[in-house]
Amino acid sequence: MNISISIQTDDFSHSDEYQNLCNDAPRIGAIVTFCGLVREFDDSNGEGLFLEHFAGMTEKTLENICQQAFERWPIISTRIVHRIGTMGLGEQIVFVGINSAHRKAAFHACEFIMDFLKTDAPFWKKALTKDTEYWVEAKSSDEAASKAWKK
Amino acid sequence: MLQLRFFASLRDQLNCDSESLDWSDNFNTASDVRATLIERGTPWDSLAKPTVLIAINQEMGNDDTAIKNGDEIAFFPPVTGG
What we know:
Shape of chain A: globular
Number of helices of chain B: 2
Largest sheet of chain A: 4 strands, mixed
Number of helices of chain A: 4
Strand content of chain A: 35-45%
Distance between the termini of chain B: 34 Å
Helix content of chain B: 10-25%
Radius of gyration of chain A: 16 Å
Largest sheet of chain B: 5 strands, mixed
Strand content of chain B: 25-35%
Oligomer: heterodimer
Order of helices and strands of chain B: EHEHEEE
Radius of gyration of chain B: 12 Å
Number of strands of chain B: 5
Shape of chain B: globular
Largest interface: A-B, 29 and 18 residues
Distance between the termini of chain A: 25 Å
Order of helices and strands of chain A: EHEEHEEEHEEH
């Protein structure tokens, strides 16, 4: 069980993260990665996001989510990078990468980790616009996505 | 003594990110601490919102989670990462 988690203000290199997941070759036959970006919002008034987190609890929560993924699927390594602080439109926020012998386990585990990261990990987004800033409300669709795994 | 922490929009409403609260033998569960804070009136009544989440010693809990002297109790709004 290889779990790696980084919470950082700096941007990350998708190709470096991908390359690290390749290091488990040749016992792996599949790598699935997800990358989340800051999307335009607020009728193009949006300028970026500020991300706050609960240091300590964030890492523990993400580790626990990865452990649950290992219990459910035969995966080899999980890697999570989540940025905090201020990010502009189009910047990378989050990376989740999984490798495994076969593709299905990696696809499922990647989606599972993202779904629970969205509802359980203590991060909060503040939207920064040209005129103001406001805390982003949680989405019920995110809650529904993680609940669906519990059925 | 309990260590209380508040995050994000809730912290902004309370204008407080942390405080130490004297232990009381009347404290059994997280809901007792929540009720004590709500009794302070505005803006602490923000904690009455049913969407407020509670973590005890950095693990998700709820109103019914048992607490003990020395615990860290965090209150925060629903999370919005990713």
